[in-house]
Structure formats: C-alpha cells, structure tokens
Amino acid sequence: MRYRLGVDVGGTFTDVLLLEETSGTTFRAKTPSTPADQSIGVMNGVTKVCAEAGIDFAEVGQVLHGTTVATNAILQNKGAKVGLVTTDGFRQVLQIARSFVPGGLAGWIIWPKPEPLAKLEDTVEVVGRLAADGSEVTALDEGQARAALSSLSGAGIEALTISLINSYANDAHEKQVAAWAAEELPGVPVSISSHVLPEMREYERTLTTVANSYVQPEVARYVRNLDATLRDKGIEAPLSILRSDGGLVQSAKAAEDPVSLLLSGPAGGVTGAVWFAEQAGFADFLTFDMGGTSTDVALVLNGEPRIGRETKVGDLAVRATSVDVRTVGAGGGSIAHVPELTKALRVGPQSAGADPGPAAYGSGGTEPTVTDANVVLGYLPSELAGGEVSLDVDAARRAVATVADAMGLESPEVAAAGIVDIVNENMFGALRLVSVQQGFDPRDFALVSFGGAGPLHANALGRLTGSWPVIVPPSPGVLCAYGDATTCLRDESARTMIRAFSETTDDELRTALDELAESAAARLAAEGVPADQQTAKYQVDLRYHGQGFEIPVDLDPKVLAGGEVLAGLGEAFDAEHQRLFSFLLKNEREVINLRVTVSGPRPEVAWKELPEGGSDASDALTDTSEVWMDGAHVSAGIYDRSKLSAGNVVTGPAVITEMDSTTLVLSGHAATVHTSGSLLIRPV
C-alpha cells in the first residue's frame, strides 16, 4: 500500500491527513499549531496520524505540505534584513513606489505608508545600463560594483536582491553582479529579478524580488529543519511544498523561490474543494474556508480555480501567480468588542489565535470570540478535534455576557446571535469580491465550505449569497491537507514581449511560447516528471494600446498548435474586457507578457463511496439539544456524520458532528448525503 501525507499549518490548528491511494481510506489528525516552531506541531500531527493508521513512518511515500511560514514572516515583520542592488539612479525605487493610497478621498491623511522591505541605507547602486530591448548601453564597472557590494558587508544583511533596469530583457548584468556578490558577501543568499520575475515594470519586479529575499532565510531554515526531522523519524519520502497557484514544488526549489509560497495555505483548500466538488458533480462554485484566525474565499469556474497575477499579504502586493483568494480577518477566534465611543458591535480582525484561544478553550482566554458565540448558541459540541479540545460552556457565556452588558441586551444568546450575524456579513462581503466584483452572479454557483469553523456558518452564507447547494466535503476541517495530498507538481516560465498585434505574427508567438514551455518542462523533468506525463497551459497578458494595465487571457493549446493565435487571443480578450468593464475600445491590442505553466499528472487517488441508506437518517441521530435559532430556543437533532449513509436527509434545525468540524443545518433547510460523502444543503 502507498500512503500520501498531507500537512496544512493554520494559525490555530495543524491538520494532517494520511491517504491510502488505492482504497481512498483516510486517517486524520488535528493538533494545536506551534507558532514558535511550526515543525513541532507538524511532527505531533504526523506521529498521531501514523499511530492511528497503525503504520510505520517508513511506509509514507510522499509528504505534501501547505505552509504559512512565508506568509507569517511578512505579516509579523520577521523576515531577513535585505540588501538591494539597483541600477545607478534607481536607488529609491521602493520608496517612490506606485502612486496609490487605499481608502477614500482623504485616505492619505490616516494611511501609514508601509516601510519598504529593503531599507534605503541598505540599498546601493551599480554603474551599468541595458536598453529596453536588452542591448547594452553602458558596461558594468566592476571596481565600482565590488566596492558597492563590499559596503553592504558591514551592514549585517541576511539576504541580497539584485534588480537592474530592463533585466527582464537580458539577464547578463544581473548574473555578473551576482557572481561578484558571491565573492564579496560569501554565504548571503542572492535573488535576482530576472529569475524571480522576468517581466517589465521595475518597481513591481524589484518589490517581488525583495519579498523573495525577505522570506528566503526563514523558509529555507524551516524546510531544512522539517526535512531533517522527518528523516530522523524514519520518513525518507520526498517533501514537496504547495505553491500559491495550487501546484507542488520540491522543497529545495521552494526554498529558492519562497515568494511563490505566500498563499500556500489557502491554495490547498481550493485544490481540495475542486477534488470533492468534482466527485459531487459540480464544476462552478465558490469556496469558503473559515479557520480559527481568518476566512479565505475563491471562485472556481469550469473546475479551474481563477488564477491571479497579484498576491496580497497584509499591505504587501507582489507580482506572483496565485489562486485568486481573498482573505478577511474573520475566524472562530475573531474577537467581538464594543467600542466605548459608538457602542456598535464589532467582530475581528483581532484574533485570540491558538494561545490563549477562545474563552471556551479554557486556556486563559477571556475575550468573547465567534467560537464562544457558537458555544452559547448551542451549535458546538462539548469537545472538538476528536476530544483534543474540551469546551468550557460557562466560560464562553461569561465572555459573551460582557458584550450583552455593554450593549444593554437581555441575554448572552442575543449577543451571541449578533456576533454570528456580523461575522457572516463580513464573510459575505469577501465572497462578493470574488464573484459580483468580478462580473459573476453568486446565484449561478454552488458554495463549498470547509475549515474547522466553515460548516458552522456555511448554511447562513448560502442564504446570504443564494449559492446552492452548500457543499460540505468529508473531513472539512482538514480539507486543506486533503488538497495538498491530491494535487500535482508544477512549474512556470514567463517573459515580457511588448508587441502590437500588427507588429507580430502567429508564428512568432508560437515560437516564444514553445520556448517557455520547453524551459518549464525541463525543470519539471528534473524533478522526476516524465515528459509524456506533462501538460502545459498558456496565458498571454493583453491590453489596448494606451492602457496602463493588462488582462491575462488563456490560450487554447489547440489554437496554439494550428489555429489563428492572434485572432483567438483578440476574441478572448474582448470577451473578458466586456465582462469586467462592460465596454470595448477600438484601439489596437498589444501583447505584453507570455506565461506557460507545465503540470505533472494528478495522482490517481480513489475515493470511498458511501453505501445507500435511503432518506431516513435516524440511525445517525445520537441526541437532541436546545439551540438558539431565529430568536428563540428550539430543539435540534444531533447527528454523528460517520453514521450517515448515501441518500440520508437531515432536516434542520440540526447539528452534524465529526472529528474535525461541526455542520449546522438551519431551520427551513435540509442536508442530503451524496454518495461521495459530501453534505449537500439546500432550502427545503
């Protein structure tokens, strides 16, 4: 038997899933995350799940990992001290940045401009210049360059970025400076922009490469430690890390290009959602991943997650391919508070996290959280994570009562219902960002809910969005780990090619795209994926002449092989422009960037089919309990999900429990069990 081990580290819990490929049998573990050293929580989960499965560590064939190490380094400002090398005259490229201020008309008054990841005093210039076509205008001055690099040696820099003007067109100067840096700054990891982001726009290219340097030492250290710990335990299987675009990359490559991992965690959930929605027969859906600290949402169209060219983490926005995920500070640990000035209830973005956690965890937390509100309402059982966490109902009531007292409400239940309503509206706003704001009607999509807290709020989100059915996959609390275990290796090549349609030809585009595909395919082959098992996807960034932004357009491989490439791209671009902005221009179209993503085969993983059991779900009914719903106490059935069969119908109000999550079915709704194990919730 062959086992795949999926690991996902969240802000509150670390999820581990052991998957036997042939039978589809799974074993799950959920342990508290250890922010100081994530590998401790990972190994606790791995040890627990292997013991449950009764297998030796040596039987694990692959380890697939979604990590938040790079994300946390950005959010917590705990990255490396970065030195930056620019072309003479461009030393302040990060300080000048782009002229954008978020917020309203007077947003600049209250907006604190983020500090650049590479300080001005740690930035040096080198003499030498390339033209936009890659030709050399001024040769590099070796003496001056070495002196500039040497000046950084006493600054204590821990990583170096080299980003020279127009290097996307010719990387010769950057490679030469990198060679000198290896001699002048031995042992300091170097990132060059022509490797990290070989595309036009010097600010975005520099910022993305600096971000890569900023997180590189931390990611490399974590990957190295985890790899060594796994081997010490007897797990010789290769370690692969999930990229932000939902593909896998071997750990050594991940340590070199960690900027591609900034959304590694959320991407795993979307990948897992695709796998289970496919089994249930749905190709168009929204994903809703609610954990302890935040909620991530995305949109999947025709079975493919929408991929964006910008990755946002906190105040940082870099040019890196990622699943188009939007994140809000709304999770089970989000803290509810009532500002003295307004007396208006607020929920999040502050979170109780894993330590001390919600008051109900009994670990010292006293502030009211979303989890505490769900406990007060009767929606959560007395134990979570298969008995790993016991809930203190009295502590939760005391915490939520502080909100009731501050607002003059008659009971903790009313305050708790208000907390849940507000957090639901916050998450509804995020779902609108990936649907309505992108030109999609959420009523045309299903809603796949997962994460430890997601299924508790999924039915309410379905009611707000009109997205039916609401799909709750099996093991929703560890679905991100499931996504890690069921995706494939992936690599990408890109280049800038600025051409008006009238200035290029189909053959020129084919040649350029084929070269990019060959480059990515060669790297994937080096990671052990045979050429005959690789598939390529082609994407071109287009714009109208005079526009200051581009729109990515997918190119059908069949059109590339023998059709009219420019005509096909033009039609696809016009359709996307019309959908996004509701108008077209007569200006000539321009090709800006070319991009090819090459993927290995998806693993052939079986899924367990549930036996048919008819509509009667009474065999899974374990108890009844009083819950607060629609402004009053009502009786709800408590169901054990492991005892449900295909075809069973659970009518709300009801609470469906399992090891890693709890699903709430509201009054007027019913959950039908699909043969794949997913719950499909619809209005009655």
TrEMBL record:
One of its GO terms (molecular function) is 5-oxoprolinase (ATP-hydrolyzing) activity. Residues 506-671 form the Acetophenone carboxylase-like C-terminal domain. It comes from the Bacteria. Residues 205-489 form the Hydantoinase A/oxoprolinase domain. GO terms for cellular component: cytosol. Residues 4-184 form the Hydantoinase/oxoprolinase N-terminal domain. GO terms for biological process: glutathione metabolic process. This is N-methylhydantoinase A. It comes from Williamsia limnetica.
